[in-house]
């Protein structure tokens, strides 16, 4: 690439990271056009075309983000904003005859714990967030509860016809403008207020509802998210045990704020209902843990000395509903993923993977995130690592990913980091839902042949496979040598794997693979039906991926509980049998061979099965008659699976290559009692 084009491309990346998507899109498209012009005029324009393709992919990604801006201006934007419309009143407010009334006078008073009242609205999470901030202010001398409301004089809100409320959402503090009208009836505020009558919480409540595009019948709130909007502190959700008891005085489905926790493990809770005779409730920590299902806590971002963030989006109809980033740094890092307000509801998660040179794993410092329908997800990892943000079962959505650390840290977009990429869609259905390797049906899982070409002479190519499925499906990706359908997996054949089964997503990454042919197996932990998308990337010069046909494709499939079969082979044929039991006897017209696979069979008994060898084409003269005698018995938990695929010729076992299919010509009455045809040549426990 020419130096001036490199400069423009670097500027495009900087603009994209800064959120200037219009400028980044223009720079990307300018560089792509000049690279294509250069490729046409050059005798060898392969490098220019390759770089143009990569930049074009980034341009397409940026194009999806253009115009997807927040409805609200950034807080430091000097442009004046028109006041928001009035949220619809709740049924309770309407019943009381409430109407929007301008505040006659603005009397500010600081809030003490228990002072914030909910009013006639079902927005307890919003009120609890203001109450929580007030409790923090009283204990630590901060000013979180009312600091969001402007104009101010000497740090205290003052009266005005129009107010600006600073709320944190969509990745930064934003300006929400409201007028001074609040719901009131018979001289009393019907929204959030202090018990002494101070009205300033009602203005903050009104701004919250406008951001949520909600009425005062606000349902489905999230206290951790609301505290974040008010203070900018990062929310984390701690799951408690399923509730099976309730402390006297607690209301089911209600949100409470925690005002204090003393050394005797006594918790002080605040009920924001205005009609509560005593809003303060005290209980033991143990009682709290059995009375609530989730504890929301928020962390001060100023606790870390370094931070960075990136913004991105998911397309709801995309097969690959994930975005990858490279997290660089040293030491512990806290990652915060926020789904933007106007995005459609979906389940989101943030994952981190560490590489040991062959396999990405989450055991050593990595973290598999949990899919949540909340707008925030928080995990802690060790840098450096690869970070993946993903969504499940949602439409178009945008997000902000932030990283916090006590050491310098950076997030870089890793999209299209490898030269070649293929995306396929598939499903586990009925027969192909094989489960993990401990199931006899593992061999039926979706499998793919991956052909990897050579790469730069100085290093071996990299291969990466990322699979997505439903958020509640535990999935794994396994890369083995061979290129043909596998029935069993030996450690020596494994090139890379995604590690332990993880829900919704699995990443299999081999940092260096020999050019050749491999088999990629996608499996669920238990046999179950689900759809999936698969993205395979490589730095090799060429990459091809093909679906391996189901086992026994083009062959007869028959199941039987009988103890013997008689096959007349009138033409070249392969005989393949999967057998569950304690013994199998295979005999031909020229001899008799017995292989015992019972639980008492020794390794020496199994060892005569020879390793794979090239298949030979048989004729009817080679094998005029084959008998397969199976001594069946009841199966116990300790019984093993015997998989045999051999040709019996002159009394000897001759192995057959996997994947070779032949047409079996035999009478119907024989087929009706025939076992399942397959193409396996392994004999393992």
Automatic annotation (TrEMBL):
The active site is at residues 124, 254, 271. One of its GO terms (biological process) is proteolysis. The keyword Cytoplasm does not apply. InterPro entries: Calpain_domain_III, Calpain_III, Calpain_III_sf, PalB/RIM13, Papain-like_cys_pep_sf, Peptidase_C2_calpain_cat, Ribonucl_H, RNaseH-like_sf. Residues 102-305 form the Calpain catalytic domain. Keywords: Hydrolase, Protease, Thiol protease. Gene3D superfamilies: 2.60.120.380, Ribonuclease H-like superfamily/Ribonuclease H (3.30.420.10). GO terms for molecular function: calcium-dependent cysteine-type endopeptidase activity; nucleic acid binding. The keyword Transferase does not apply. Belongs to the peptidase C2 family. PalB/RIM13 subfamily. This is Cysteine protease. It comes from Malassezia cuniculi. The gene is RIM13.
């Amino acid at each position: 690439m020419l130096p001036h084009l490199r400069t423009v491309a670097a500027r495009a990346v900087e603009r994209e990271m800064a959120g200037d998507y219009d400028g980044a899109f223009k720079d990307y498209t300018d560089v792509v056009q000049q690279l294509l012009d250069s490729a046409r005029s050059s005798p060898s324009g392969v490098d220019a075309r390759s770089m143009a393709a990569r930049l074009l992919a980034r341009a397409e990604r940026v194009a999806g983000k253009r115009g997807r801006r927040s409805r609200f201006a950034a807080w430091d934007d000097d442009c004046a904003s028109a006041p928001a419309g009035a949220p619809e009143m709740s049924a309770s407010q309407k019943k009381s005859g409430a109407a929007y009334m301008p505040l006659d006078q603005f009397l500010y008073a600081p809030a003490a714990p228990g002072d914030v009242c909910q009013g006639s609205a079902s927005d307890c999470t919003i009120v609890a967030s203001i109450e929580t901030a007030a409790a923090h202010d009283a204990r630590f001398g901060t000013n979180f509860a009312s600091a969001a409301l402007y104009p101010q004089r000497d740090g205290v809100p003052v009266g005005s016809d129009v107010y600006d409320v600073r709320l944190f959402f969509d990745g930064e503090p934003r300006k929400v403008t409201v007028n001074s009208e609040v719901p009131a009836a018979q001289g009393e505020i019907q929204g959030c207020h202090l018990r002494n009558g101070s009205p300033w919480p009602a203005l903050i409540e009104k701004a919250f509802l406008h951001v949520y595009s909600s009425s005062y019948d606000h349902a489905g709130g999230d206290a951790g998210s609301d505290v974040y909007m008010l203070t900018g502190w990062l929310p984390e959700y701690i799951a408690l045990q399923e509730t099976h008891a309730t402390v006297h005085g607690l209301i089911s489905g209600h949100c409470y704020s925690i005002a204090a926790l003393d050394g005797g493990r006594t918790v002080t809770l605040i009920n924001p209902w205005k009609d509560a005779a005593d809003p303060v409730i005290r209980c033991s920590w143990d009682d709290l843990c059995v009375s609530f299902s989730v504890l929301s806590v928020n962390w001060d971002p100023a606790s870390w000395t370094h931070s960075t963030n990136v913004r991105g989006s998911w397309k709801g109809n995309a097969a690959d509903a994930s975005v990858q980033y490279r997290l660089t740094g040293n030491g512990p890092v806290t990652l915060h993923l926020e789904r933007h307000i106007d995005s459609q509801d979906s389940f989101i998660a943030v994952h981190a993977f560490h590489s040991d040179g062959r396999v990405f794993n989450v055991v050593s410092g990595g973290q598999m995130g949990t899919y949540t329908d909340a707008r925030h997800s928080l995990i802690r990892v060790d840098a450096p690592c690869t970070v993946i943000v993903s969504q499940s079962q949602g439409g178009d959505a945008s997000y902000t990913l932030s990283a916090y650390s006590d050491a310098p840290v950076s997030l870089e977009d890793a999209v299209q980091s490898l030269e070649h990429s293929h995306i396929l869609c598939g499903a586990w259905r009925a027969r192909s839902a094989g489960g993990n390797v401990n199931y006899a049906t593992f061999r039926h899982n979706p499998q793919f042949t991956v052909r990897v070409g050579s790469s730069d002479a100085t290093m071996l190519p990299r291969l990466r496979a990322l699979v997505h499925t439903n958020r509640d499906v535990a999935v794994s990706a396994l890369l083995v040598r061979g290129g043909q359908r596998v029935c069993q997996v030996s450690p020596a054949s494994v090139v890379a794997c995604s590690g332990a089964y993880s829900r919704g997503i699995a990443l299999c990454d081999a940092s260096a693979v020999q050019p050749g042919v491999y088999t990629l197996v996608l499996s669920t932990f238990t046999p179950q039906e689900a759809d999936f998308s698969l993205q395979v990337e490589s730095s090799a010069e060429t990459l091809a991926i093909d679906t391996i046909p189901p086992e026994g494709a083009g062959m007869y499939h028959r199941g039987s509980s009988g103890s013997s079969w008689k096959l007349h082979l009138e033409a070249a044929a392969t005989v393949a049998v999967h057998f569950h039991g304690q013994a199998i006897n295979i005999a031909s017209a020229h001899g008799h061979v017995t292989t015992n696979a019972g639980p008492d069979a020794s390794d020496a008994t199994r060892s005569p099965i020879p390793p794979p060898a090239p298949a030979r084409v048989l004729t009817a003269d080679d094998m005029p008659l084959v008998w397969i005698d199976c001594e069946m018995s009841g199966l116990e938990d300790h019984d093993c699976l015997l998989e045999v695929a051999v040709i019996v010729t002159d009394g000897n076992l001759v192995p057959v290559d996997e994947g070779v299919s032949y047409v079996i010509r035999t009478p119907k009455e024989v087929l009706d009692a025939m076992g399942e045809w397959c193409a396996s040549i392994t004999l393992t426990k």
